[in-house]
Amino acid sequence: MEKLPQNFKVPNAEERKRALGSMGGTNFKVKKALENVDDYWVPINPPGPSDWLANEYESGQTFEEFKVNKNAIVEKGKSDTICILPLDKQMSKSFLKNLVKMCEAFFYSCRIKLLPSVDINTIEKIETRQFPGDQYAPDTPGLIQYNASKILSWLFRVYKPQNPRAICIIAVTTQDIYPEENFSFVFGLANVMTQAGIFSFLRYDPGFNGDELNEGDDGQNLMLYRACKVMTHEIGHMFGIRHCTFHECCMNGSNHIQECQSRPLYYCVICFRKLQYAIGFDVQERYQALAKVCQEFGGLFDQDGQWFQRRYDDLLAKFGKLQSKMPDKKVKQ
């Protein structure tokens, strides 16, 4: 069945402000981190004909709507771990190590546990099909794809009971995946109710469809950059954060690799507030950790790393001014 085009309207300033929500009762440091929105975040761009919002209806999700989802809120002392499960025993150890590093910084205050690798073909009742080909990968008909929805059910049934402290479990694979029959492929998929997710980085490989790297580009750095984006996007879904329709944001939906590539690595101010509410990280320490890991990875991470550093420096200046005015008191954490 052919999808009808969606008439997405870019939210105006008042709608974006309303989506961010009231600051009443908000922690002081968090409140400061939500200021100066226009200095750091830009409104979402109108979608092109092949982009996500031109083809998929999204109602948007305000901060207040997010708070209703109690399933996504971390229960201190009960759940504190994000589990990563590689579905390929030959996956690069250094690549997986870097995914863990990004996860530790991005979901600051959570423990990250890398589970032993599993061969995707050993999953019970796994469903596969041959990729029919589409406009994004016309040269790859016959490619074997794996049903991501079935894998999520397996993750919840097998791995959730084995990891009682897990907030969520995300699988990573080098195989192509699809969510259901009427989709040609998907970069990743997550279920907020079971808090299980999966992402594939097959299509992030610049050689997947014969793409040529520009001179000086690092193919491994490009794959890691794209993988970090979709990993943090899918884990965000497992915390109950829906696709962002307000700002340019890592939580925007993506219909193709060019759209995915155009998204920033960071969450917008609204999605940032949702994540902080869910796991309760120190806003300043998190920005510092993200700036550090982006600096370590270099290459395509440099621009986002500079953004994280600016955020950290801004908060450092704000909190430093407060302490200078109140020399005998400590700022509440």
UniProtKB/TrEMBL annotation:
Pfam families: Peptidase_M54. Keywords: Hydrolase, Metal-binding, Metalloprotease, Protease, Zinc. GO terms for biological process: proteolysis. One of its GO terms (molecular function) is metal ion binding. Its cofactor is Zn(2+). PANTHER family: ARCHAEMETZINCIN, ARCHAEMETZINCIN-2. This is Archaemetzincin-2 isoform x1. The gene is Contig15266.g16264. The keyword Zinc applies. CDD domains: Peptidase_M54 (cd11375).
